Amino acid sequence: MGNYRFILSGGGTGGHIYPAIAIANALKDKYPEAEFLFVGAKDRMEMEKVPQAGYKIIGLWISGLQRRLTLKNLLFPLKLISSLLKAGKIVRQFRPDIAIGTGGFASGPVLQVAAKRGIPCVLQEQNSYAGLTNKILAGKADRICVAYDHMERYFPKDKIVKTGNPVREQIVAADSSKKEAFAFFGLNPDQQTVLVLGGSLGARRINQLIESQLSLFEEMGIQVLWQCGKGYYTQYKKYDGHTVKVLDFVNRMDLAYAVADVIISRAGASSVSELCIVGKPVIFIPSPNVAEDHQTKNAMALVEESAALMIAEGNLDGKFPGLFRELMESQSQREQLSKEIKALALPKATEHIVEVIESVLKN
Length: 363
Known about the structure:
Elements: E1 5-9, H1 14-30, E2 35-41, H2 46-52, E3 57-60, H3 71-94, E4 98-101, H4 107-116, E5 121-125, H5 132-137, E6 143-146, E7 160-162, H6 169-172, H7 178-185, E8 193-197, H8 204-212, H9 214-220, E9 223-227, H10 233-236, E10 244-247, H11 253-259, E11 262-265, H12 269-278, E12 282-284, H13 294-303, E13 309-310, H14 316-329, H15 331-342, H16 349-362
Parallel strand pairs: 1-2, 1-4, 2-3, 4-5, 5-6, 6-7, 8-9, 8-11, 9-10, 11-12, 12-13
Helix pairs in contact: 1-16, 3-4, 7-11
């Protein structure tokens, strides 16, 4: 049977949306006759990104609970009831064979309704600290695909399958030559290179750090490939030159990774999974402004395996110069970090998740 009907829900951030799209793409390759429907939150980025990927999406009037008392929280019960009613109508009309949730508040109503109607459900949890929606839905799911060990702290042990997180095919299949990569960015192949990543929007605190350390990089003879984010490009493009390349966005991440001797990055779940496959030494600077501080927990899962270094934002000015200098001057430390982070890579995550979905469908 190839004409399955898949309903996928997850969103609010790229960390929930892109895994859902990757799973849909892999299922579509296997089942070209299948039908797909995404359900997201009305005013969030999935309403733009999912249609760009070629899929239909319906928006719910839903948002997460704020951590402090706000007017939005007072509207939450109304939004939830509205979303459950609309999700019920969507599920009744679409009649999915299976519901797949990748986290984020939008997936709650859809998976809740699907499970109540006896439709099998698969969850995918990207982070080492499970999100609230997936924790609530766990009891109703048939299988829960995770990327980290010790997830039985949050989910029933017999439902957990360690698959890893879907990663961009461009990275998994990357076979970029260093020569091509250095030429692409106009960098010197004979100099050490640090790659700075703050996500597509950029990270204010990381950008401030890099600006403050440019003299250190120059003194050490290190060149910098600095992805500062679209919102910060006008502020930092003045530093673009021979040894510092400032970009708002990196379209060829495979080439960016190829030039890097060391990477400075946020610790979102997708980034961490990607960096394990890349296998370069990483200094994580987690964002403290995310729910449940999950970026710190993602980074710590690697630090505890001696697979990465981490500096909290509050300690950057005091700790970064010494730690960075020590790392760049120690080839053995860089090699050890590369070896340990690569050992944690799960490059076939998307395939594995599809296998889990198929096994639930067949049962």
